[in-house]
Each structure stands twice: as structure tokens, then as C-alpha cells.
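FIELD: query
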Amino acid sequence: MKVAVVGAGVGGLAAAIELAEAGHRVTVFERGAAPGGKCARVQSGGFTWDAGPSLLTMPWVFADLDVELLRVEPVTRYEFADGSTLELSADLPRALAALEAWSPGAGSDWMRFLAVCASMWRASERFLTGPPPWPPRRPAPGEPPPDPRDALAVKPWWTLRDLARATARDPRLRMVIERFATYAGADPRRAPAALAVAGYVEHAFGAWHPRGGMYALVEAMVRRLEALGGALHLRCAVERIGVAHGRVWGVETTTGAFAADAVVTDVDERVVRTQLLGRAARRRTPSLSGLALLLGTTDPAPAHHRILFPADYDAEFDDVFTHRRMPRDPTLYVCAPPGQGWFVLVNAPASPADWDGTQAAVLERLDLHPGVVERVTPADLGGPIYGGAPHGRLGAMRRPGNTIRGIDGLWLCGGTVHPGGGLPLVTLGGRSVARQLSGSRPSHVPSAR
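FIELD: result
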């Protein structure tokens, strides 16, 4: 089968590799000058930054790539407005000791949180590796039917805030738990409790960083694709997906038409519908976007991953989701890998804002005076990072699916569709789409420990 892949992000590359391994003829079209999509590398003034995803979890997903993964300890250092700090390790005894020293009783609360999330993780295998659960479908031949207990395990009646309040007594620990909503670009007060699984995998399976930076994953994927005979065309934008009589026939690019038996897209689902198909997009609350500051500094950092919380966490989400403005006192995420500059991410709406003012306030808060500052705004990121925000108690399971009704041969992957964003999920999603296209069954994910 001849397959065209639109977009060389990590999800598209994962799908292309899986398809090439299955014997299909695969051609990837990327409008940019480099592959990787949001997983980008920026170099300026002698500094190098990973300008997209900066935390790697679920390392087995990338085990077949020629990349060395280094464990990051602690997983994250949390800094609170009252001046207190908490360093959480993936080593459970060390984490519990730190929690108890920080807030008596927090260790047992953390164990209660992890126990709930472990059940969610065990229930998530089918969701992570297979087609979307909504709308309900008849199991394929040989596929086990859904287990009703899985639906209960993800606490569908709880928001993430409900889960935080049910498991943690210290308001600061609740903030740590609620922050996992931002991994999907959501407001913890409206996000499903199931998003807590993101925090569970960090601490059950550890946090990792590829030697050479996150972009080393992209380079390894391109090497694998080309070794399998796949083709990658850079600076070649797809302008339209060709459809005739309810089936794709290929794509129209800036260099001409390309006939294909199937098309896989790794671009924002709204872009697929509105720009590549000329259809109307469904209205959804946009997810968080972000302002990224790439700081050229050699100042030592307290930790690889650091979170600086504001005094009023709710006000930040009110600003972004209700008022559509930059938070007055935002959370700062700081990533400072060895040998690289600092990457600082600030939650932001997808709409324009006073980026100069925000940048100045962030540098003052960090007490930094870097010689080089590169800026990546929501406009550079294409708007919301994760497409629509997964709000509602079933939000995690109601993401846009991997197909579009009425168009055979068209498959969607990437962070704005099922199973969601983040490097492991977009990789699993790309592979799942490729297997469905090829008619094979999904593989398994590790059991919760």
C-alpha cells in the first residue's frame, strides 16, 4: 500500500516507521525546514535548547530507537509562594521521606494518590494502545470485550481537583496533583481525574532525558524511517487532501499532486478539517498554549525540572480560560538540562498578549540576566498546544478520534486527537493508527507496579 503522511512530528514519524516496517511504501511531507513538529531544537549564540517537550516518561515506548536515555533525579523540584520547596523522586522511599519532612502526613497522602492512579493505569491499556473508546464500537474478532471495571477505575465522576482533595490534605500537595491537568492543556477544576495518570507514570516509571537532548529522538526516528526505505520531503507543504467518492486519493502539495492509497495526518485536527478538507471544525474550548523563553545562561539550576507556583493557582486558570489573558502571576516551568540553556514555559491563552511585559516579569522573578533570549509565542506554536481542552468528567475519553466519518483511507494522529499529547502518547497513537490501517492488533503496555 502507498501511504502519504502529512507532518513529520513525532506522531507522524512513529506512524510512518510502523507502516514501513509492515511493508508499506511511505512518504512523509513536512512543510517546515526540519522534522520533529513541536519537538524542536533551537540554536543561537552558542546555546542549544529543546524548544518543545522537555520531559520524557514511559521509556519503553522508545526502547527500539538508537538513543541513550538518562534518568533524571529528582523528577521535579516544586517551589511555592510561601518559600517552601519539595523535591519529588521516582524512588518511592526517598519521595516519602521528603514528603514527610516537608509536611507531616503528606507521605501517606501521596501513597493514597498513587494507589488510585495505579488502578487508573491498569485500566488504561486499551485506551492508550487502541482506537478511541467513543463512540462505543463492537470488539474486533479475537479482541476481548471492554471490562466495565475499567470505566469505574478512572473515577469518571471526579474532576482532577476532586481527586486532589480526596487524597491530599496539604493545599500545596493538592497543587502538585492538580498541575497534571496542564499536561493536557486543561483546567484542573474542569479536567477529568484520569489525567492524574500523567503524574503516576512519572513516579512509577521515572523521568528521563535523551543524551543529546529531546531532539535526539527525532533524529533517531528519521534514521529508522530512512533505513526502512521511507521518504521524507522537507519544505513541502500539503495544501489539500484529495477526496473522491468518499475515499482519499492522495494529497496536493506545493510541488504537485501525490497519489496514495491512504493518508495519515499529524497536524492539528482543526487544520485537517478546515484547511486540508475545507470542512467546518467542531467548536471546543481551546487548551492552554504557552509562552516559551529560551534563555542563554550558564547559571547553575537547582534541578533539571523545576516548577514555581503562584500564590493563587485558581486565578491563573481564571485568567487563561475565562478572561483569555496572560496570568498576572503565572506558574513557571523551568527546564535546565546539563549543557543546554534554560527553557522556561509560561501558561498562556492562544490569543495575543503583552509578550515583552511577560518576558520582563519572568526574568525578574527568576533574577536572571541572560545574554541571549529567544521567544516562542502561541502564534509560533499554532495556537492551543493540545487542540481542545479535555474538560468534563469524560474529557480524556472524548478527544477527537483517529478517523473522520465519511472519508475512507484517512487517519489522524498527533497531540490533538486520541490518545492525547506528550511524546509517549503521540508515539503510541501514531503506532496505533498505523496498526489499524494495516489491520493488525495493538501491543501491550507494562502493568502497574
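FIELD: remark
The first strand starts at residue 2 and ends at 6.
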